[in-house]
Each structure stands twice: as structure tokens, then as C-alpha cells.
Amino acid sequence: MSNNQTSNTCPELSSPNQHSTLPSGRRRRRKKGKKAQDDQESTGQRPLTNPDTARPSQSLFEGAHHFRTKNVNVTLVNPPPIPEPVDGWKLLVESISPNALHNSSARYDAPKCDEDTRIELTRELMDRIEDRENPQRLLCMTGAAGSGKSALQQTIAERCENSGILGSAYFFANADPTRNTISTVVPTIAYQLGSHNPALKQAISAAVAQDMVIFEKSLRTQMNNLIVRPLRYLREGTGLDLATLPHAILIDGLDECQGEDRQEELLTAVRECLLSDDLPFCVFIASRPELAIRTALAPGGHLHAVAYHVQLSAHHDASGDMRRFLRRRFERLSLRTGNPHWFTEENIETLVKAGSGQFIYVATVYRWISEPRASPAERLKIVLTWTPDAEQRARPFEALDQLYTNILLNAKNAYESVDTHSGRDFLLLLNIHHINLVNRFADSNNFGALFGMPESYITDLLGLGDESVEILISDLHSLVSKKMDKFSYLLILHKSFSDFLNTESRAKDLFVPPSRAYSHLAKCCLLYIVRCPDPEYRA
Fold it and tell me: In this predicted model, which residue has the larger pLDDT, 56 or 454?
């Protein structure tokens, strides 16, 4: 090898002898460095470096020289962990009620109107919802139990969805703990509204992240923070045209929300927040005519001037739709049985008349008749000839009876919880008025002819005030109403409800024997005579 080749060799690849060519100072520093490295390896120590900023070959004292350290204690401290960002949308989703959605699995095969039923009413409702310029942006539909309110709401929800204007829908259900309180209403509405627009979704998520206890606050606060303010922020900050958003908000079954005060809170929050002039929403609420919504819609109520009120039972006769409903479904059963003559038009008419204009009656009857493991003709005959026989095992009205039981129990508990009603028997008083109504046109030779009196006479005999009847039925307006003739008297909206009250096998623990009602009224008559100031009545 030549001298030139040797001189060009890299130092790292040279033999140890080649280090003699380095300056003496560099040789000493390299030896000291190697010794320090050997000392660290022998003691198990590691260089003092910051693991977050360390680079290869760097030391804690990089660049320092001519100093000594003695008795130094070094403590390495890890930096505090950086908190995870709050996912507001995830918190929101955890607070909603999926079962309350119009297309949830919990509401699979939910009732809705047939194509040729409720045509005019459905068109009227859709026209009002679609009209963004209509000053009345609150629609309230009330009706008796079983009048088809939920079926109409489901139909409207599906049509709004198909038209691209459904902002949200919430269906209350008393039997479902995830949707029988107001706690999940606003989160569920906000979730649906945000799902339609990414920017609104992000704004709602940020609002939740900023206030993680928002779901524990008042309904009005929730609506303002999760719906109203995010929309106004997007309109003012990004120029979003709110008229481009789906604007229909549907709420069904308000009466099935627990607590009249909570129902009132929801109605107030809707009026004060969602109906603001600068927001695009049209709100459609359906409910039985119970106290909260009845008071709000009455003259002087806070919704009277702003709501368009649809009263199903009073202005919309469903008899024709009920006939079409039964006829179409009975014809389908004919295909299953191969017998097109198993029912008659007279059978349909009898069922429609028994339904008193309430869809739930014919829907319940059809559901029972269409049992796939039974004969439709045989079950139809049982319905038409059903009597409360002790040996009668068929229960064609079981679903209907459960509805009546729930309404009566709620009304009973509400009435008897009032301190001034202490000692009063709600069921007994109701049945006295019921018997009076049933015997209104009784034969004069029948003891029942003692009844059939104006309700004011009954309340005098019972020793109750002038408003006692209205108070008694304040939670029964979905089943009972007052009617003015020459005198005012009660009117049963469902013939089947009257049958329920008269039948022990159906009413069960809520049944009051007529003998008890007669006995109580006779006792009240005697007390009335004793108290009466006119000597002629005491002679």
C-alpha cells in the first residue's frame, strides 16, 4: 500500500496506532470521555437528559467546560399529563333517548294512517308545516285516548322526512323509562338537528364541552345553549341561512310525560325558545287534552294566541276512516283464509259504532282477530257477542282495558293527593256520575230513574261544590267531557269505556259495584233531608 493511500484512510477505520498522529489534547479528551462512559456502564447510571427533548450525543451539560460538581442530587420529574379534549357530541349522544325517535327499533311497526284515511286532516297539517311564512308556527293537536294522534304524528313524521324538512321527532311513552320524562327531550332534539348539518353539530358539541352539566339544568337553559345559541352563532359568524335547515319539530304524547309541572315547563320552553322570530322552526305537539296543555290552550293561556289548535274528537269524525281500515284488513285476512265471506258489512258497521269514533277500538279488535294461530271468523264472532261471563276466557279488549286502567289510576292518584279531597273516594264519585248518565233516560219504573238528574243535583246531594265535577274529571278529558243541554251533564267519549266501568272482569280493582253507588247516594239523600232548611222536606 502506498503512502498516499495510507494518508487518505478515514480515522474511524484506522488502527489504534494511528491515534498517535492526533494532537495530545484530543487524545486526552477522548480517553477521559471513554473512561466516563466506562464508569457509567459499570455503575448502571444513564446520562441525565430530558426524554422529551433529548437528541443523540446530547448531555445535560452540553457545551459547558472548566467546572466541577460535587454531591449533586438530580430528580427527574415527568411533566403533568395533558388532559384529553372533551368530546361534547359523545356526551350529547349518551344523554338522548333513541327509543323516542320516529324510526327507532323500539317503535317498529308504529301505527300510522292508511293512504286513504285522514286524507284531509293530514293535508291540512302538512300545508301548515310546509308553509314557512305562516305566523302560527305552533300546532297543537288534542284528542281522546285512542283517537289516532300517534298514528297521525307518525304519518306526518315520515312525510316530513321524505320532504327533507324533518328537523326532529320525539315520541313520549309512559311505559318506557327512557322516554317518559323531559330529561332526554332537548338532547334528543339537538342530536337530530345537529345530525343534519356538520357546522351545527360542531357548534352543539362545543356548547356541551363548555358546560358538561348542561343536561342537569332547566329545560329553557338547555334549549338556549344547545339549540338557539349555536344557530344564532352560525348565522352571525358564518352567514348560514337558517331557512335552509329542516325546520319541523314533532313532539307526540305530551300527556305521557311524567309530571304536569314538567309538561308545563316543556310547553313554556318551546314558546320562549323555539318559536323566536329569528328561528325557522314549526313545532307540532300532540297530546290528550289533559290539564297542562288544556290550560295552556284555553282562553287566557300562554299558548292560546300563538297556537293553531286541532281538536280531533270534536271536529274530525273518523267513522268513515275506521270502516275503510277494517274493510281493507279483513280483505287481507280473506286471502289468508281463502274465504272472502267470513265477514259482512254489517259486522264492520257494528264494530265502528262500538268504537265511538276512536281508532284504538277497531285497531285493538283487528289485532286480536288477526291472531295467526286462530280463526278470524271465530274470533270475530266472539267480539260481536262478547259478554262478561265468568267462564269467558277470551280477552279481545285487553289492550284497551290496560289503556283505561292507566288513565284511571293516574286520575285517581292525582285527585286523592289533594289535601282538600281527603276522605273522598274518586272511583265511587266517578261511578255515581256514570250511573246517573247511563240512567238518564231510564224507565220511570226502574230504580235507576232516580238518577238521570242534572249533575248539579248530584253534586248537591253529595255535598260537593259547584266545580266538583270539573275537578273530578280534570284528568279524564281524554275519556269524558261535559255537555250542555238544558242542564250540564257528563258525556262518555268511548262506549267501550262505559262497558269497562260496568264490567268487573275488565275493570278488576277499579270496579265499583252499582249497589255501593246506590247505597252511598241514598245515604247522602237522607243527610241532605236532615240538613235541608225547608220544613216541607223534613216532614
Answer: 454
- Pairing relationship of beta strands 248-252 and 166-171 according to DSSP bridges: parallel
Write out the H or E segment, with its range, that includes residue 462: helix 455-462
Which range, of 99-113, 202-216, 373-387, 474-488, averages the lowest pLDDT? 474-488
- pLDDT recorded at residue 440: 57
Phi, psi of 331 (to 5 degrees): -65, -35
pLDDT digits (tens, 9 = 90+) for 171-196: 999 999 999 999 999 999 999 999 99
3-state secondary structure of 306: coil
Q: For residue 142, what are the β-bridge partners? A: 287, 311
Strand partners, 310: 141
- 305 alpha carbon, distance to own chain's centre: 25
Bridge partners (DSSP) listed for residue 171 = 252
Which is higher by pLDDT, 440 or 210?
Answer: 210
User: How far apart, in whole angstroms, are the C-alpha atoms of residue 427 and residue 408?
Assistant: 9
The torsion of the CA quartet 410, 413, 416, 417, rounded to 10 degrees, works out to -120
- The partner residues of 489 in beta bridges, in order of sequence, read 483
For residue range 293-329, list pLDDT tens digits in order: 999 999 999 999 999 999 986 567 789 999 999 999 9
Nearest by Cα to 163 from 104, 248, 43:
248
In DSSP terms, 166 is beta-bridged to 248
- Joined together, the cell numbers standing for residue 511 give 270496579
Of residues 76, 268, 103, the one with CA closest to residue 169: 103
Whether this prediction's pTM lies above 0.85 is answered by no
Closest listed residue to residue 285, CA positions, set 150, 137, 140: 140
Give per-residue pLDDT as tens, 461-498: 888 887 888 899 999 988 888 776 666 677 888 888 99
d(CA 178, CA 168) in angstroms, rounded, equals 17
Rounded CA-CA distance 27/49 in Å is: 26
Closest to 507 (Cα-Cα) out of 351, 400, 385: 400
* CB of 490 closer than 8 Å to CB of 480: yes
Decide the pairing of beta strands 480-484 and 307-311.
unpaired
Q: Is the dihedral of CA 498, 502, 505, 508 positive or negative?
A: positive
* Half-sphere CA count of 153, side-chain side, radius 13 A: 32
Q: Residue type at 318? A: A
> pLDDT value at position 45?
46
Place of cell 357530541: 89
Q: For 24-50, how does the pLDDT look when each residue is reduced to its tens digit (9 = 90+)?
A: 444 444 444 444 455 544 444 444 444
Cβ distance 351 to 467 under 8 Å? no
Closest CA relative to residue 139, chosen from 287, 289, 283, 311:
283
